[in-house]
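Changelog-adjacent note: as of this version, every example in the card shows the full chain rather than a window. The one below runs 67 residues end to end.
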Amino acid sequence: MEEITLNGAPRSVETSTSISVLVEGLSMPERRLAVELNGVVVRKADWPEIVLKTDDRVEIVHFVGGG
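Full-length structure tokens:
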């Protein structure tokens, strides 16, 4: 298990969990998300390749339309 921080809260994830797997597990619509890993925005194309490790800080922002 890896211990990460997700949107300011501690969370355990399986070893070798990628950002894609994390997002899928949260059941959030990928097309309206932005992911930041340790203070750096991650391109969606890179999500499958980036494996989370202990002490990573992940922020996920869901964009909502409207005016």
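Structural remarks: The longest strand covers residues 57-62.
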